[in-house]
Amino acid sequence: MKLSLFFVAALAVFSVSAVPLVYDDEPEVPYERYIEFIDENGVKNTIDLEEEPDVEFLNSITRDNDINGYFLFTRSNPDNPQQLFKDDAESIKNSNFNSKDNTVVIAHGWLSNQESGLNPAIRDAFFNVGSYNVIVLDWRPLAMRNYITSAGGVPEVGRNLGRFLAFLSSVTGIGLDTVHLVGFSLGAHLVGNAGRELGGKVARITALDPAGPLFNLNSNKVRSDDAIYVEGIHTDGGLSISLGIGYSIGDVDFFPNGGNNQPGCFTTSICSHNRAWRVFAATVSYNHLEGRSCSNILQINLNTCRGDRLRMGNGELYKSGSGRYRANTRRRYPY
Protein backbone atom coordinates (compact mmCIF):
# COMPACT_ATOMS: atom_id res chain seq x y z
CA MET A 1 0.00 0.00 0.00
CA LYS A 2 2.83 2.38 0.88
CA LEU A 3 4.45 1.74 -2.50
CA SER A 4 1.19 2.45 -4.31
CA LEU A 5 0.78 5.72 -2.45
CA PHE A 6 4.37 6.63 -3.21
CA PHE A 7 3.88 6.23 -6.94
CA VAL A 8 0.57 8.08 -6.89
CA ALA A 9 2.27 10.96 -5.11
CA ALA A 10 5.21 10.88 -7.50
CA LEU A 11 3.01 10.87 -10.56
CA ALA A 12 0.79 13.67 -9.29
CA VAL A 13 3.48 16.24 -10.01
CA PHE A 14 3.66 15.45 -13.72
CA SER A 15 1.86 17.34 -16.52
CA VAL A 16 2.31 17.45 -20.29
CA SER A 17 3.88 20.87 -20.90
CA ALA A 18 7.36 21.31 -22.36
CA VAL A 19 10.36 22.44 -20.32
CA PRO A 20 13.90 23.69 -21.05
CA LEU A 21 16.61 21.22 -22.00
CA VAL A 22 18.84 21.61 -18.94
CA TYR A 23 18.11 22.75 -15.40
CA ASP A 24 19.86 24.44 -12.51
CA ASP A 25 18.19 22.55 -9.69
CA GLU A 26 15.65 19.75 -9.31
CA PRO A 27 12.60 20.86 -11.29
CA GLU A 28 9.15 19.41 -11.51
CA VAL A 29 9.81 17.76 -14.86
CA PRO A 30 6.53 16.89 -16.58
CA TYR A 31 6.18 13.59 -18.39
CA GLU A 32 3.44 12.37 -20.67
CA ARG A 33 1.67 9.26 -19.45
CA TYR A 34 2.97 7.09 -22.31
CA ILE A 35 6.62 7.01 -23.37
CA GLU A 36 7.91 4.90 -26.24
CA PHE A 37 10.88 2.66 -25.50
CA ILE A 38 12.58 0.41 -28.06
CA ASP A 39 14.69 -2.41 -26.62
CA GLU A 40 17.90 -3.89 -28.06
CA ASN A 41 15.93 -6.32 -30.22
CA GLY A 42 14.06 -3.47 -31.87
CA VAL A 43 10.84 -4.31 -30.05
CA LYS A 44 8.69 -1.30 -29.23
CA ASN A 45 7.56 -1.10 -25.60
CA THR A 46 5.38 1.50 -23.99
CA ILE A 47 6.07 2.92 -20.55
CA ASP A 48 2.75 3.68 -18.86
CA LEU A 49 3.45 5.99 -15.93
CA GLU A 50 0.02 5.27 -14.47
CA GLU A 51 0.37 1.48 -14.55
CA GLU A 52 0.08 -0.31 -11.23
CA PRO A 53 3.32 -1.64 -9.71
CA ASP A 54 3.60 -5.29 -8.74
CA VAL A 55 3.55 -4.61 -5.02
CA GLU A 56 3.73 -8.28 -4.06
CA PHE A 57 6.95 -8.72 -6.04
CA LEU A 58 8.44 -5.52 -4.64
CA ASN A 59 7.67 -6.67 -1.11
CA SER A 60 9.54 -9.90 -1.83
CA ILE A 61 12.78 -8.03 -2.53
CA THR A 62 14.17 -7.95 0.99
CA ARG A 63 17.57 -8.14 2.58
CA ASP A 64 17.25 -11.94 2.63
CA ASN A 65 16.28 -12.21 -1.02
CA ASP A 66 19.07 -10.87 -3.22
CA ILE A 67 17.81 -11.32 -6.79
CA ASN A 68 21.01 -9.94 -8.32
CA GLY A 69 23.48 -12.01 -10.31
CA TYR A 70 27.18 -11.09 -10.08
CA PHE A 71 29.41 -12.16 -13.00
CA LEU A 72 33.17 -11.65 -12.91
CA PHE A 73 35.31 -11.03 -15.99
CA THR A 74 39.08 -10.54 -15.93
CA ARG A 75 41.80 -10.60 -18.55
CA SER A 76 42.17 -14.30 -17.70
CA ASN A 77 38.50 -14.90 -18.56
CA PRO A 78 37.45 -11.95 -20.73
CA ASP A 79 34.52 -13.74 -22.36
CA ASN A 80 33.41 -16.48 -19.97
CA PRO A 81 32.19 -15.13 -16.64
CA GLN A 82 32.58 -16.67 -13.22
CA GLN A 83 29.54 -16.19 -11.00
CA LEU A 84 30.13 -14.79 -7.53
CA PHE A 85 27.66 -15.15 -4.68
CA LYS A 86 27.00 -13.00 -1.66
CA ASP A 87 27.77 -14.89 1.58
CA ASP A 88 29.72 -17.56 -0.35
CA ALA A 89 33.39 -16.77 0.22
CA GLU A 90 34.55 -19.78 -1.77
CA SER A 91 32.89 -18.51 -4.94
CA ILE A 92 35.16 -15.47 -4.65
CA LYS A 93 38.33 -17.21 -3.45
CA ASN A 94 38.10 -19.79 -6.25
CA SER A 95 37.59 -17.15 -8.94
CA ASN A 96 40.07 -15.04 -10.93
CA PHE A 97 39.37 -12.00 -8.77
CA ASN A 98 42.67 -10.17 -8.20
CA SER A 99 42.74 -7.92 -5.15
CA LYS A 100 45.64 -5.98 -6.71
CA ASP A 101 43.45 -4.75 -9.56
CA ASN A 102 40.77 -2.09 -9.42
CA THR A 103 37.17 -3.26 -9.62
CA VAL A 104 34.54 -1.99 -12.06
CA VAL A 105 30.85 -2.85 -11.63
CA ILE A 106 28.47 -2.38 -14.58
CA ALA A 107 24.69 -2.11 -14.06
CA HIS A 108 22.34 -2.29 -17.06
CA GLY A 109 18.98 -0.56 -17.43
CA TRP A 110 15.34 -1.50 -17.94
CA LEU A 111 14.48 -4.58 -20.08
CA SER A 112 18.13 -5.65 -20.13
CA ASN A 113 20.39 -8.32 -18.64
CA GLN A 114 24.03 -9.42 -18.42
CA GLU A 115 24.18 -10.07 -22.16
CA SER A 116 22.98 -6.62 -23.18
CA GLY A 117 25.23 -4.60 -25.48
CA LEU A 118 26.54 -2.08 -22.98
CA ASN A 119 28.16 -4.79 -20.83
CA PRO A 120 30.67 -6.19 -23.36
CA ALA A 121 31.27 -2.72 -24.79
CA ILE A 122 32.28 -1.23 -21.45
CA ARG A 123 33.98 -4.42 -20.22
CA ASP A 124 36.17 -4.74 -23.29
CA ALA A 125 37.03 -1.04 -23.20
CA PHE A 126 38.48 -1.44 -19.72
CA PHE A 127 40.44 -4.52 -20.77
CA ASN A 128 41.82 -2.49 -23.69
CA VAL A 129 43.63 -0.20 -21.27
CA GLY A 130 44.48 -2.36 -18.25
CA SER A 131 43.84 -5.26 -15.92
CA TYR A 132 40.57 -5.00 -13.98
CA ASN A 133 38.06 -7.04 -12.08
CA VAL A 134 34.92 -6.30 -14.10
CA ILE A 135 31.71 -7.42 -12.42
CA VAL A 136 28.58 -7.34 -14.55
CA LEU A 137 25.47 -7.02 -12.42
CA ASP A 138 22.44 -8.87 -13.78
CA TRP A 139 19.22 -7.65 -12.16
CA ARG A 140 16.88 -8.98 -14.86
CA PRO A 141 14.25 -10.46 -12.45
CA LEU A 142 13.28 -6.86 -11.69
CA ALA A 143 14.40 -5.14 -14.89
CA MET A 144 12.12 -7.29 -17.08
CA ARG A 145 8.94 -6.21 -15.26
CA ASN A 146 6.87 -3.15 -16.10
CA TYR A 147 8.66 0.16 -15.71
CA ILE A 148 6.73 1.21 -12.63
CA THR A 149 7.70 -1.97 -10.79
CA SER A 150 11.31 -1.83 -11.98
CA ALA A 151 11.69 1.77 -10.83
CA GLY A 152 10.14 0.93 -7.45
CA GLY A 153 12.60 -1.90 -6.82
CA VAL A 154 15.76 -0.04 -7.85
CA PRO A 155 16.64 1.19 -4.32
CA GLU A 156 16.54 -2.31 -2.80
CA VAL A 157 18.49 -4.05 -5.57
CA GLY A 158 20.99 -1.22 -5.29
CA ARG A 159 21.33 -1.75 -1.56
CA ASN A 160 21.82 -5.46 -2.22
CA LEU A 161 24.67 -4.60 -4.57
CA GLY A 162 26.17 -2.48 -1.81
CA ARG A 163 25.94 -5.36 0.64
CA PHE A 164 27.55 -7.70 -1.88
CA LEU A 165 30.45 -5.28 -2.34
CA ALA A 166 30.88 -5.02 1.43
CA PHE A 167 31.10 -8.82 1.56
CA LEU A 168 33.52 -8.84 -1.38
CA SER A 169 35.70 -6.36 0.47
CA SER A 170 35.67 -8.47 3.63
CA VAL A 171 36.73 -11.60 1.71
CA THR A 172 39.38 -10.06 -0.54
CA GLY A 173 40.64 -7.17 1.57
CA ILE A 174 40.08 -4.60 -1.19
CA GLY A 175 39.27 -1.05 -0.20
CA LEU A 176 36.06 0.53 -1.36
CA ASP A 177 38.23 3.31 -2.75
CA THR A 178 39.35 0.89 -5.49
CA VAL A 179 35.78 0.42 -6.78
CA HIS A 180 34.18 2.22 -9.76
CA LEU A 181 30.42 1.80 -10.24
CA VAL A 182 29.00 2.39 -13.72
CA GLY A 183 25.23 2.45 -14.20
CA PHE A 184 23.02 3.20 -17.20
CA SER A 185 19.47 4.60 -17.05
CA LEU A 186 17.70 2.92 -14.10
CA GLY A 187 21.07 1.27 -13.44
CA ALA A 188 22.52 4.71 -12.68
CA HIS A 189 20.11 5.12 -9.75
CA LEU A 190 20.79 1.53 -8.75
CA VAL A 191 24.54 2.11 -8.35
CA GLY A 192 23.78 5.36 -6.56
CA ASN A 193 21.87 3.41 -3.93
CA ALA A 194 24.71 0.88 -3.74
CA GLY A 195 27.16 3.67 -3.06
CA ARG A 196 24.83 5.14 -0.45
CA GLU A 197 24.61 1.75 1.28
CA LEU A 198 28.40 1.86 1.54
CA GLY A 199 28.46 5.33 3.05
CA GLY A 200 29.64 7.09 -0.12
CA LYS A 201 33.07 5.45 0.22
CA VAL A 202 33.47 3.97 -3.27
CA ALA A 203 35.94 5.92 -5.37
CA ARG A 204 33.72 6.77 -8.31
CA ILE A 205 30.25 6.48 -9.78
CA THR A 206 29.58 7.13 -13.46
CA ALA A 207 25.87 7.72 -14.07
CA LEU A 208 25.09 7.22 -17.76
CA ASP A 209 21.96 9.17 -18.74
CA PRO A 210 20.21 8.40 -15.44
CA ALA A 211 16.53 7.58 -15.98
CA GLY A 212 14.17 10.53 -15.74
CA PRO A 213 10.60 9.17 -15.46
CA LEU A 214 9.65 8.75 -11.77
CA PHE A 215 13.08 9.90 -10.57
CA ASN A 216 13.20 13.67 -11.00
CA LEU A 217 11.59 14.26 -7.61
CA ASN A 218 12.62 10.93 -6.12
CA SER A 219 15.04 10.97 -3.18
CA ASN A 220 16.32 7.56 -4.33
CA LYS A 221 17.95 8.96 -7.47
CA VAL A 222 21.73 9.02 -7.81
CA ARG A 223 23.36 12.05 -6.17
CA SER A 224 26.75 13.57 -5.53
CA ASP A 225 27.31 12.10 -2.05
CA ASP A 226 26.89 8.48 -3.19
CA ALA A 227 30.63 8.20 -3.89
CA ILE A 228 33.81 10.18 -3.45
CA TYR A 229 33.35 11.39 -7.03
CA VAL A 230 30.10 11.18 -9.01
CA GLU A 231 30.00 12.00 -12.72
CA GLY A 232 26.83 12.27 -14.79
CA ILE A 233 26.77 12.00 -18.58
CA HIS A 234 23.43 13.25 -19.93
CA THR A 235 22.47 12.47 -23.52
CA ASP A 236 18.66 12.45 -23.59
CA GLY A 237 17.39 14.76 -20.88
CA GLY A 238 14.84 17.45 -20.46
CA LEU A 239 11.70 16.94 -22.51
CA SER A 240 8.47 15.23 -21.53
CA ILE A 241 9.18 12.37 -23.95
CA SER A 242 12.83 11.95 -23.01
CA LEU A 243 14.22 9.01 -21.10
CA GLY A 244 16.96 10.71 -19.09
CA ILE A 245 17.38 13.39 -16.45
CA GLY A 246 18.32 16.76 -17.94
CA TYR A 247 19.90 18.46 -14.94
CA SER A 248 22.95 18.02 -12.73
CA ILE A 249 23.05 15.08 -10.31
CA GLY A 250 26.76 14.68 -9.54
CA ASP A 251 29.95 16.48 -8.66
CA VAL A 252 30.55 16.92 -12.38
CA ASP A 253 27.90 16.64 -15.09
CA PHE A 254 28.58 16.49 -18.81
CA PHE A 255 25.97 17.43 -21.40
CA PRO A 256 27.30 16.09 -24.73
CA ASN A 257 26.05 18.21 -27.62
CA GLY A 258 23.77 20.03 -25.19
CA GLY A 259 22.49 16.92 -23.43
CA ASN A 260 19.74 16.01 -25.88
CA ASN A 261 19.28 14.95 -29.52
CA GLN A 262 22.66 13.36 -30.17
CA PRO A 263 24.27 13.57 -33.65
CA GLY A 264 22.93 10.87 -35.95
CA CYS A 265 19.86 10.21 -33.78
CA PHE A 266 17.00 11.43 -35.92
CA THR A 267 13.81 9.67 -34.92
CA THR A 268 13.89 7.99 -31.52
CA SER A 269 14.74 9.10 -28.03
CA ILE A 270 16.27 5.69 -27.30
CA CYS A 271 19.13 6.39 -29.73
CA SER A 272 20.21 9.46 -27.75
CA HIS A 273 19.63 7.62 -24.48
CA ASN A 274 21.89 4.70 -25.50
CA ARG A 275 24.55 7.10 -26.78
CA ALA A 276 25.60 7.65 -23.14
CA TRP A 277 27.06 4.17 -22.72
CA ARG A 278 28.45 4.07 -26.22
CA VAL A 279 30.30 7.36 -25.72
CA PHE A 280 31.53 6.32 -22.29
CA ALA A 281 32.97 3.06 -23.62
CA ALA A 282 34.81 5.04 -26.29
CA THR A 283 36.29 7.43 -23.70
CA VAL A 284 37.57 4.50 -21.65
CA SER A 285 39.47 3.24 -24.68
CA TYR A 286 40.69 6.60 -25.99
CA ASN A 287 40.20 9.26 -23.28
CA HIS A 288 39.73 11.73 -26.11
CA LEU A 289 36.58 13.75 -25.38
CA GLU A 290 36.90 17.00 -23.52
CA GLY A 291 34.29 19.28 -22.04
CA ARG A 292 34.33 23.00 -21.31
CA SER A 293 32.93 24.38 -18.08
CA CYS A 294 29.65 26.28 -18.45
CA SER A 295 28.42 29.17 -16.34
CA ASN A 296 24.73 28.80 -17.10
CA ILE A 297 22.05 26.90 -18.96
CA LEU A 298 22.13 29.19 -21.98
CA GLN A 299 25.81 28.46 -22.58
CA ILE A 300 25.14 24.72 -22.57
CA ASN A 301 22.27 25.02 -25.06
CA LEU A 302 24.04 27.51 -27.35
CA ASN A 303 27.44 25.80 -27.23
CA THR A 304 29.21 28.89 -25.90
CA CYS A 305 30.92 27.34 -22.85
CA ARG A 306 34.43 28.76 -22.48
CA GLY A 307 35.46 27.66 -18.98
CA ASP A 308 38.01 25.14 -17.77
CA ARG A 309 38.57 21.91 -19.68
CA LEU A 310 37.91 18.45 -18.26
CA ARG A 311 38.02 15.02 -19.90
CA MET A 312 34.61 13.36 -20.05
CA GLY A 313 34.15 9.79 -18.93
CA ASN A 314 37.32 7.63 -19.18
CA GLY A 315 38.38 4.86 -16.81
CA GLU A 316 40.39 6.90 -14.34
CA LEU A 317 39.47 5.83 -10.85
CA TYR A 318 40.44 9.05 -9.14
CA LYS A 319 38.92 12.10 -10.76
CA SER A 320 37.99 15.44 -9.25
CA GLY A 321 36.15 18.57 -10.22
CA SER A 322 32.78 20.25 -9.98
CA GLY A 323 30.24 21.93 -12.19
CA ARG A 324 28.58 21.50 -15.57
CA TYR A 325 30.38 20.88 -18.84
CA ARG A 326 29.47 20.67 -22.47
CA ALA A 327 31.37 18.25 -24.72
CA ASN A 328 30.85 18.04 -28.47
CA THR A 329 31.02 14.71 -30.26
CA ARG A 330 30.69 13.24 -33.72
CA ARG A 331 27.90 10.88 -34.79
CA ARG A 332 30.00 7.73 -35.20
CA TYR A 333 32.37 5.74 -32.99
CA PRO A 334 34.64 6.77 -31.37
CA TYR A 335 32.59 9.97 -31.41
TrEMBL record:
Natural source organism: Diatraea saccharalis
Any one GO cellular component localisation term in the record: extracellular space
Compartment(s) of residence: Secreted
Family: Belongs to the AB hydrolase superfamily. Lipase family.
Main location: secreted
InterPro entries: AB_hydrolase_fold, Lipase, Lipase_N, TAG_lipase
Signal peptide: 1-18
Name of the molecule in the record: Lipase domain-containing protein
One Pfam family from the record: Lipase
Record lineage: Eukaryota, Metazoa, Ecdysozoa, Arthropoda, Hexapoda
A GO BP annotation: lipid catabolic process
Domain of life the protein comes from: Eukaryota
Keyword Transcription attributed: no
Gene Ontology molecular function: any one: serine hydrolase activity
Domain (Lipase): residue spans on this chain: 54-305
